[in-house]
Amino acid sequence: MPMRQITLISTGGTIEKTYDEHAGTLMNRSSVVQEMLRLLRHEDTQINTLQLMQKDSLDLTDADRQRILDAVRLVVGPATDDPITDPNSCRGVIILHGTDTLCETGEWLHQTLIQNAEPNHALTVPVILTGAMRPFEMKRSDALQNLNEAIFAAGLLAPGIYVVAHGNALPFPGPKKDRERGTFIQTNN
Amino acid sequence: MPMRQITLISTGGTIEKTYDEHAGTLMNRSSVVQEMLRLLRHEDTQINTLQLMQKDSLDLTDADRQRILDAVRLVVGPATDDPITDPNSCRGVIILHGTDTLCETGEWLHQTLIQNAEPNHALTVPVILTGAMRPFEMKRSDALQNLNEAIFAAGLLAPGIYVVAHGNALPFPGPKKDRERGTFIQTNN
Amino acid sequence: MPMRQITLISTGGTIEKTYDEHAGTLMNRSSVVQEMLRLLRHEDTQINTLQLMQKDSLDLTDADRQRILDAVRLVVGPATDDPITDPNSCRGVIILHGTDTLCETGEWLHQTLIQNAEPNHALTVPVILTGAMRPFEMKRSDALQNLNEAIFAAGLLAPGIYVVAHGNALPFPGPKKDRERGTFIQTNN
Amino acid sequence: MPMRQITLISTGGTIEKTYDEHAGTLMNRSSVVQEMLRLLRHEDTQINTLQLMQKDSLDLTDADRQRILDAVRLVVGPATDDPITDPNSCRGVIILHGTDTLCETGEWLHQTLIQNAEPNHALTVPVILTGAMRPFEMKRSDALQNLNEAIFAAGLLAPGIYVVAHGNALPFPGPKKDRERGTFIQTNN
């Protein structure tokens, strides 16, 4: 079978918070992406990782979001009229992101990469945002589940911007964080 | 959002083997489905469970496979010309199955439910087989990952018969177990 | 074999901190003692639990420490000249305590229950303080290890006040928290 | 604090059984000792490991038991009239052993090293046998608990031969496996 290529961009957020024994608090200090990937078993899939930043998503600036966009464009490659024919080419981008402002980033990526895309520069792969309500380092975290779903979805979804978590794939525009229930919901259907 | 309905039929296999302390061996004795589901977090999804049998898949008889088919038909509901319009209706069937003969069952379900389907009795939901190379009760098992992927896929895939595991969704006919690598591969493309 | 009786008094501390998904922080809100005990396998041992308070040990007041002392005295029972002859009687007291001020509480219990004990009121069981550098709810926590060692030590140690953690049983007076190494050390030998 | 030295001799048994994905069964093939030790946090303790054999204890021969005895003697060092004064010297020996014949090995070590010890060749450290009812590789195994207790006990127990498991330290002669309850019990008191 052809090898699937997925790129995982980590930006921080609850999913990657680790415990600092001296301070006694949870912080975004280093990525736990490699540790999460070791717990999953993927066949015919190569997952590239790009550790872009380590931030609580409430602290993300416009400049940070621009860096995320630049990273997505870098990974997706130069726009082209041709459909992707190389089976080894990029099949999807996953962004690990804090849940508090994940949907703002998702809406902005949708506006920039889809609504306002230049002619003949259509997005050819799915771009999937995901995060977690409990840090990966905690027992009973939803982190590994959501990352697993995002990687699986990268091989199935049509080009577009999505949030994937808790069993659902929700396309932008529309998704919002539901703070009461601790999940994402679709608001436009 | 509408509530997604998924039905999980368990038949046994490595994924559900548990350790018998007296015998010192792994056996199919009781289903671990409920314990697995407690470790996943699903929103807007109702997962019905049907504990059909507890067998090593090498011991499955023709009568056992008929019971599996009967269960799928029961869950999918009476065939109809109308597309499913009730958002609460069944969105997918998952079958937990031993990996050794999973593909035989998949091929047979494909022949019966798709190739030889009576006119106007088309399958309207995906039927997903999954299993594991290591029992759920073992550390570093692929059981929870594969179940998670199967549940996620049940909301995304088109009607058809599939094996979902290790990041891939492979449609029947075609998939085979690759014993060397310990996974499933597609043989017809 | 006679049944061993151990009493576990929980006061809070890092060991019992749980994650609040709304606030995104770790807090002392409810005891995780029962969940920890379910993960251990004890024969011929009955573990009574007393949920005294849920506090970061930096917030413990003199009144809180008095309540801890009262609880220990209640559990140990009325002082007596007779050695314990009832095999079902209390064989040890364990106090789950935040590590930051655990040694202050230990020194004070030592002064009160041993140094200044009234004649004929000698302590007849070990009183063991323990805690954790990482909350039980985190992966790779030392919480279950330390609780396991404390329960085991309760059946072996002579009467006295101890901190038990990371493989060591250190008698008071003397133990201090070593913040650099994240453990307890004996300072008087 | 002085550094404690413990030596861990592994012989196989249920505690070290791992899952063979091709055969679909549990086997004694390689030691899991290093992986277990990584999950525990010990201060001022050096744990040496000696992988002696990988056998189900029902398959142990007299020659195997002689090798275990030789290993214990090697670790304990040459007999001497002097008490151990070097704080870096051996403080205890732990033997990982299948539970089915653990007590036979314990009785024999007791006869050889204690009852029939030559004059002035008294055992100066505790020798602790332990094992597990469920392999370490299974969820909810008692393996890590028992190893943790054995290491902790090695720093506390008087010289002698013991089985340590499930919260108890039982000195030989006397302990037997209770197959009904899945634990060890003392039969001579």
Describe this structure in words.
Four copies of one chain form a homotetramer. By secondary structure, chain A is an alpha/beta fold. Chain A is 25% helix and 29% strand. Chain A is built from four helices and ten strands; from the N terminus they run E-E-E-H-E-H-E-H-E-H-E-E-E-E. Chain A has a six-stranded mixed beta sheet, with helices on both faces. Chains A and B meet through helix 4 and strand 10 of A and helix 4 and strand 10 of B.
Question: What is the overall pLDDT average of chain A?
Answer: 91
Distance between the termini of chain A: 37 Å
Largest sheet of chain A: 6 strands, mixed
Q: What's the total helix number of chain A?
A: 4
The amount of beta strand of chain A, in percent, is 25-35%
Oligomer: homotetramer
The proportion of residues forming helix of chain A, as a percent range, comes to 10-25%
| Rg of chain A, Å, rounded | 16 Å
Give start-end ranges of low-pLDDT stretches of chain A.
none
* Strand segment tally of chain A: 10
Strand order of the largest sheet of chain A: 4-1-5-6-7-8
Computed structural class of chain A: alpha/beta
Please describe the structure with a list of short key phrases separated by commas or semicolons.
homotetramer; 189 residues; alpha/beta; two-stranded antiparallel sheet; 10 strands; globular
Explain the layout of strands and helices:
Four copies of one chain form a homotetramer.
Chain A: E1 4-12, E2 18-20, E3 25-27, H1 33-38, E4 45-55, H2 62-76, E5 90-96, H3 102-115, E6 126-130, H4 143-154, E7 160-165, E8 168-171, E9 176-178, E10 183-185
Parallel strand pairs in A: 1-4, 1-5, 5-6, 6-7
Antiparallel strand pairs in A: 2-3, 7-8, 9-10
